[in-house]
Design goal:
Order of helices and strands of chain A: HHHEHHHHHHHHHHHHHHHHHHHH
Oligomer: heterodimer
Number of strands of chain B: 14
Number of helices of chain A: 23
Distance between the termini of chain B: 61 Å
Largest interface: A-B, 108 and 86 residues
Shape of chain B: elongated
Helix content of chain A: over 70%
Largest sheet of chain B: 7 strands, mixed
Strand content of chain A: under 5%
Strand content of chain B: 15-25%
Radius of gyration of chain B: 29 Å
Structural class of chain A: mainly alpha
Shape of chain A: globular
Helix content of chain B: 40-55%
């Protein structure tokens, strides 16, 4: 679609550079360009009226108790228990609202202990969760190893380690961590942990069946564990190509927690795969302040020919450009998907997907890498993904088209 | 179940957090005499976290609330920033004050803008910034700082909880360093700019040939080839430098679709002139005219690199020298090679005409694409 790309380039008023970029390697220049540009856009002003609302402050439900804890901590600054409770609230808020500021608040709360020569293991586990949330996986692993050496009975620590290892494709280490967590966390959590890894290593069907059976029989699973379980079940069902079951699990999870961000985005992806972009727009319009939702709105907007499509795409670009300035932990997977689907720039998408692969190896990372390589007319460029899939015996119906294609081609 | 309340976060770590993290934007300019000016943009959410602005606790911040606390806010933020100026033998802490408070809209919300002024009391060779704002309440906060010494190019640093202090030298990225930076950018952009390269090569295809009796014949001497090449390259350089300067100074401002379409057309015409050279007797004239258009294209690149904060003269000079160096590299690789094969009929009868036709085709696609983009 060269015409649309060119059209967009002209709208952005930097056509020539865009052409240059499109013809050549450097996807990242795009962001650099945006980053330089974004600084000087508007000029400071004086609002005309005192009543003018400048900023709405988010008031996450989970932070209701935070003020009280904060005051208590101000009175007794050495009270580790209060500090940990407050940090946990902030971590939850970050997770729910998708706002990394809260992770910074959590670190600041724990700072007095983290600065000690030998921080308490429980604090190190929380710091690891924060690091993992900021995509600093290596540091997360380091903190967890230290904490678990000192206190191997921290179930939360083992679970976090399992997930970090899983994301990075260290499946055996991940499985070991799940086993170590087994007697320290609720049964449902331990099972979900194991099944998630097994599903990526050639034992998809038995892993799904076991977990599914547990999910339908168990009655005392805590809500947060149940949501996690349904999320993983949905992904495993989809991996098997069973979209109906995937939807059932998504709905089951959403009935427990309608505000879960990950499930909402997963649901949107499901709708997109079913070519129902209008439903995606209905689902996500109120969540456009979150990048993950905005990305899917931009994709759905184009598919549904919604008049807000350009607006959403531009908002996504602007936000990424601003984030780029601060060397924020990169969301390369999302950026790759945006470049592939919205910008129709498979070359840039491919470069981003390749960088992303260095740190993340989940099925979604494989998908965007393979799809970008194919769209760029270079399916062989994603050979390392195929090697990885073959090595681990991963099965995934969503990836199959790309794998078959390469078999034919090569 | 308090032990496991954080379980959810563990689940799906690769889930992108959907917002920008907390950044403030601090811009400072120090004059040779030591006078300091600038502005500091801080998100209202961060001021609320640091000091508290929402007096009536209704989860909104109004201009009235912000104004009412301006003194406390100013005192707080300024007490969390120290600027130290040094010259050969002295150092002094610069005074900093902010009388005027404004606001500005950034992509992630409204920011308070503290307009800053102060005095370092000496002519600084370096500035040390010690930044402490918000770290005790948000450990992931960053201060994105841009400093200019007089008219030198801006230097950017990010200050974080782990790196709270940074020293910037007046000559750090000023003068030659800036020149070098933009020189490299110039080289880079000519080497990745397919359409400029193609235009240049198209004009140079026949530099080693001469049109005689309705066909391309090899030139006899290297000297002739070099003269022709120099004529073309010089003409192209003179005019594109001219329009690059005019556009960068803001004296010429054409819409980018027009410029890029015109560039595509110049490439096509250049190729056409190889097929029917009788209609284009003086190639250097063509280079002279079309150089005007390509200069505007370079200016778009330069504008995108960001001229803000830099000394325009140095930037332009560096960038242009870079463009020339990149161009010289292309010429030095292509012309000798073409000279060696100029006698072969493969070059004269096949490479030049077929290459030119192919280039016309490519250029036509570009032209249509770029023109269509404007509609």
């Amino acid at each position: 679609m060269p015409m649309t790309t060119s059209c967009r380039a002209a709208i952005k008023g930097q056509g020539i550079l865009n052409q240059l970029r499109r013809l050549t390697l450097p996807g990242l220049f795009l962001f650099l360009g945006g980053a330089f540009g974004s600084h000087a856009v508007a000029a400071p002003y004086t609002p005309e009226s005192d009543d003018r609302i400048l900023q709405r402050l988010p008031t996450p439900e989970v932070l209701k108790g935070a003020d009280a804890l904060q005051q208590q901590l101000a009175k007794t600054p050495r009270d580790l228990d209060t500090a940990e409770r407050l940090a946990r609230l902030y971590i939850q808020a970050a997770q729910r609202e998708g706002d990394p500021r809260y992770l910074g608040y959590a670190s600041a709360t724990l700072a007095p202990w983290l600065e000690q020569a030998d921080p308490p293991p429980t604090v190190q586990v929380l710091a690891a969760i924060i690091a993992q949330g900021e995509h600093r996986f290596t540091q997360a692993r380091y903190l967890l190893r230290q904490a678990l050496r000192e206190n191997p009975r921290l179930g939360q620590g083992w679970l976090t380690l399992a997930v970090v290892n899983q994301v990075q494709g260290h499946y055996q280490d991940s499985l070991d961590a799940c086993r170590n967590a087994a007697n320290l966390v609720p049964t449902g959590a331990a099972l979900t942990c194991q099944a998630s890894v097994l599903a990526l290593t050639g034992e998809l069907v038995p892993a799904y069946t076991t977990l599914e059976r547990y999910a339908s029989a168990a009655i005392d699973t805590p809500d947060d564990v149940a949501v996690w379980m349904q999320t993983r079940l949905a992904e495993m069902a989809w991996q098997q190509g069973d979209k109906t079951a995937a939807l059932a699990h998504i709905k089951a999870g959403r009935s427990i927690d309608p505000d879960d961000r990950y499930l909402r985005n997963l649901y949107a992806d499901w709708l997109l795969a079913e070519s129902r972009p209008a439903a995606v727009i209905t689902l996500l319009t109120d969540h456009a302040d979150q990048d993950g939702a905005l990305l899917r709105l931009a994709i759905a907007g184009i598919a549904a020919q919604d008049r807000r499509a350009d607006l959403w795409a531009q908002q996504f670009r602007d936000r990424r450009a601003a984030a780029q300035r601060s060397a924020e932990f990169a969301h390369l997977r999302e950026l790759a998907r945006f470049n592939l689907t919205v910008e129709q720039d498979p070359k840039t998408a491919l470069a981003l997907a390749r960088d992303n692969w260095r740190s993340q190896k989940e099925p979604a990372d494989m998908h965007v890498y393979l799809a970008a390589a194919q769209a760029a007319g270079k399916p062989a460029a994603a050979q390392e993904v195929r090697a990885f899939i073959a090595e681990n015996g991963l099965q995934d119906a969503r990836l199959r088209p790309f794998l078959d294609h390469s078999a034919e081609a090569g | 179940m308090i032990r496991f309340v954080t379980l959810l976060l563990v689940l799906i770590p690769a889930l992108a957090l959907g917002h920008k993290p907390s950044d403030s934007y601090l811009t400072l300019k120090v004059e040779d005499g030591g006078a300091l000016s600038g502005q500091w943009d801080i998100a209202l959410r961060d001021l609320e976290r640091a000091v508290g602005v929402d007096s009536n606790r209704d989860a909104t911040i109004t201009w009235g609330e912000l104004k009412a606390r301006r003194t406390e806010l100013r005192d707080h933020v300024l007490s969390h920033l120290t600027v130290i100026a040094r010259n050969e033998n002295r150092e002094r802490v610069c005074t900093l004050d902010s009388i005027d408070l404004k606001v500005d809209d950034h992509v992630d919300g409204t920011y308070a803008v503290f307009l800053l002024h102060g005095d370092c009391g000496l002519s600084p060779l370096s500035l040390t910034l010690n930044y402490r704002f918000l770290f005790d309440r948000d450990a992931s906060h960053q201060g994105l700082v841009k400093v200019r010494f007089g008219d030198r190019p801006g230097q950017a640093v990010a200050l974080s909880n782990q790196h709270r202090e940074q020293t910037l030298r007046r000559d750090g990225s000023g003068g030659l360093a800036a020149l070098a930076t933009f020189f490299r950018q110039g080289v880079h952009h000519i080497l990745i700019g397919y359409d400029h390269i193609l235009f240049l090569l198209t004009l140079l295809f026949p530099a080693v040939l001469v049109w005689r009796q309705g066909a391309w014949q090899p030139k006899e001497s290297m000297r002739e080839a070099v003269t022709t090449t120099l004529g073309i390259v010089t003409a192209f350089t003179v005019t594109h430098s001219l329009t690059l300067a005019l556009a960068s100074l803001g004296l010429v401002d054409l819409p980018s679709w027009l410029v890029e379409s015109a560039i595509a057309i110049t490439v096509g015409l250049g190729a056409a002139s190889n097929l029917a050279p009788q209609f284009f007797p003086r190639r250097w004239v063509m280079a002279l005219l079309f150089g005007l258009i390509h200069g505007l294209g370079f200016a778009a690149v330069l504008a995108d690199l960001g001229l803000d904060g830099g000394s325009l003269v140095l930037t332009l000079l560096g960038f242009n020298l870079g463009v020339e160096a990149g161009q010289a590299l292309i010429v030095l690789i292509f012309v000798p090679a073409a000279f060696l094969v100029r006698r072969t009929s493969a070059y004269r009868r096949w490479f030049v005409p077929i290459g030119s036709v192919a280039i016309i085709a490519i250029a036509s696609v570009w032209a249509v694409e770029r023109l269509a983009g404007a509609l």
